[in-house]
Amino acid sequence: MDHLEFRLLGSIDACVGGRRLDIGPRKRRYVLAALLLDLNRPVPVERLIDAVWEGDPPDSARMTVQGHVYRLRRTLVGARVESDSSGYLLLADPESVDALRFRRMVDEAARRDDRSGADLLDEALALWHGPALGDSGGGRSLEVAAVELEEARLAAVEELARRRLRLGEPERLVAPLRATVTANPHRERLVSLLMTTFYQVGRQAEALELYERTRRLLADQLGVDPGRELRSTFESLLSAQA
Fold first, then answer.
1. Domains, the chain, ranges and CATH?
2. Going residue by residue through the chain (242 aa), what tens digit of pLDDT does each one get?
3. DSSP conformation class of 3
4. What is the separation, in whole angstroms, between the first and last Cα of the chain?
5. 10 Å Cβ neighbour count for 221?
6. Which is nearest to 124 in space by CA: 150, 147, 98?
7. What is the pTM of this model?
8. Apex CA 41: angle with CA 36 and CA 42, to 5°?
């Protein structure tokens, strides 16, 4: 029997056997996301309203949320949406929610050795298929949740890179790290890891060029110099060349 699965690491979706269910309009997806982020715990109606509307909600907000919950109950066969005095809760297996599975896998990887931990981090990062919560667009609480999930993803990328470098596998990092640095050029720890990766695969000139490009970017856009970690990586690479 196919199980119901929920996706938050990209568009907000529910799937059965790989087939996407018709959740309905965007605001209903925001309600679903808020319930999933607090899976198996009551979510006050006020928090659901905050997840749906940016700024002041309309007078009809409470009734609109209740209507979306009613529709979700009819759509999500295999999960239960219940209500109590404090709000609504969605009851389901945490492993059915990709964001919760991702966090569980990252936590488990931290307890493993470099080889098995790196492999598990690869699996965890493969769960992502776009910006968290579909790049949000909902209310403030969903925007905060999306930022937190993205930070967790970047931290996992960094931890995976550190492990692959310790394992002597820098060639596996060049393409994914370069893409992540391109999307996050101000994140100095990522830049430092990519510099080290370039150096270990024999592309020393690119490592030094990356440092200089990042130094100029930080100065021009943020008015700051590279931090201690990035400077230390740069100096270590220079010393190794001497």
1. 1-167 (1.10.10.10), 169-242 (1.25.40.10)
2. 568 999 999 999 999 988 999 999 999 999 999 999 999 999 999 999 999 998 889 999 999 999 999 999 999 987 899 988 889 999 999 999 999 999 999 999 999 999 999 999 999 999 999 999 986 678 989 999 999 999 999 999 999 999 999 999 999 999 999 999 999 999 999 999 999 999 999 999 999 999 999 999 999 999 999 999 999 999 999 888 76
3. P
4. 63
5. 10
6. 98
7. 0.92
8. 100
Classify residue 149 as exposed, middle or buried by CB count within 10 Å of its CB (0-12, 13-18, 19+). Answer: buried
Residue found under tokens 């909600």: 57
Buried b / exposed e along 75-97 (16+ C-beta atoms within 10 A): bbeebebeeeeebbbbebbeebb
* Look-up of token digits 């905050």: 50
